[in-house]
Design goal:
By secondary structure, the protein is α+β, with helices and mostly antiparallel strands. 50% of the residues lie in helices and 11% in strands. It contains 12 helices and 7 strands. This is Transcriptional repressor PaaX. Residues 196-283 form the Transcriptional repressor PaaX-like C-terminal domain.
């Protein structure tokens, strides 16, 4: 890091020590947050140099990159003795899908409609049902009854994409529904605490605030580009791991004082505080001798509600 004795450097080092990031997961975080804004291509040597200060050694990083290629997240090109890695179409699609949950979050308003996925009693084996359940839960669906999953925001398209991905597009019903609880029935929203593990998600948000809240004061003085980059990667890596497990239910369904709201506001403030300096560091390393590295896209300016006005 630029200044090993700075309070910011010491705090960042403590965050890395207390929760060492995994190389493959950290690569995905970096790809989605930073590299997609610049064309999605990077030399392997530059990727190694970028992530070394976060405790990722070259051997682990090479192994992680090879796995991401095998899983079709990345594609590789050989240029003499050098390797250029590019985000694949598959990786870009998954990154774009995750970006909405990471940078925008759930809409505060809700029209009361639900997307339901119903599994018929016949036509699906146990393995297929288990895999479908895992995919739906990851997408934020809750199981409100055996074989019946619901989500208040997710469009039907997302459910159909999961069924296509698993090769069972014709083995489940995808429905749009609205509560008729006014006629005396049980509203789906009343089952929130039973169908979604909100307590665990809330605790993760509280821990996020505890870990990253002190960074605001440490960042009052402009950070060096290398420190800003490390802060940004750690921030988004931790944030991504939480929000992609958050069903992102509408506000009326959440407990009072839901910590996710305060955590998102904190994340956005820190993100923009380090953004420009972190971009300078990224440009200096990933942008050198890389014709595929492009200027910052407009998407980058819209994250977390957009760049705040200058003070």
């Amino acid at each position: 890091m630029a200044n090993p004795q700075s309070p910011l450097d010491r705090y960042l080092s403590r965050l890395i020590k207390n929760d060492p990031p995994r190389a493959k997961s950290l690569c995905v975080s970096l790809l989605g947050d930073a590299l997609t804004l610049h064309g999605g291509a990077i030399w392997l040597g530059d990727l190694i140099e970028l992530l070394a200060p976060l405790g990722i050694n070259e051997r682990l990083l090479r192994t992680s990159v090879f796995r991401l290629v095998a899983q079709n997240w990345l594609q590789s090109e050989r240029h003499g003795r050098r390797s250029l890695y590019l985000i694949s179409e598959h990786g870009a699609r998954h990154t774009a899908h995750a970006s909405q949950r990471i940078y925008e979050g759930a809409p505060r308003d809700w029209n009361g409609e639900w997307t339901l996925v119903a599994l018929p009693r016949t036509g699906n084996g146990l393995a297929e049902r288990a895999e479908l359940r895992r995919e739906l839960v990851w997408e934020g669906f809750g199981m409100i009854a055996p074989g019946l999953f619901a989500h208040p925001h997710t469009e039907a398209r997302a459910a159909h994409e999961i069924l296509e991905k698993l090769g069972i597009p014709d083995r489940a019903l995808v429905l749009s529904a609205r509560d008729l609880a006014g006629a005396g029935g049980l509203p789906i929203a009343s089952l929130a605490s039973q169908c979604w593990n909100l307590d665990d998600v809330a605790e993760q948000y509280r821990q996020f605030i505890k870990n990253f809240g002190p960074l605001e004061k440490l960042l009052e003085d402009a950070p060096a580009p290398a420190e800003a980059f490390i802060a940004r990667v750690l921030l988004l890596h931790s944030w991504r791991r939480i929000v992609l497990h958050d069903p992102q239910l509408p506000t009326p369904m959440l407990p009072d004082n839901w910590p996710g709201h305060a955590a998102r506001e904190l994340c956005g403030r820190i993100y923009w505080r380090v953004f420009d300096a972190s971009e300078a560091h990224l440009d200096a390393l990933a942008g050198k001798d890389n014709d595929r590295y492009t200027p910052l896209t407009a998407e980058g300016e819209s994250r977390f509600g957009g760049r705040p006005p200058a003070a």
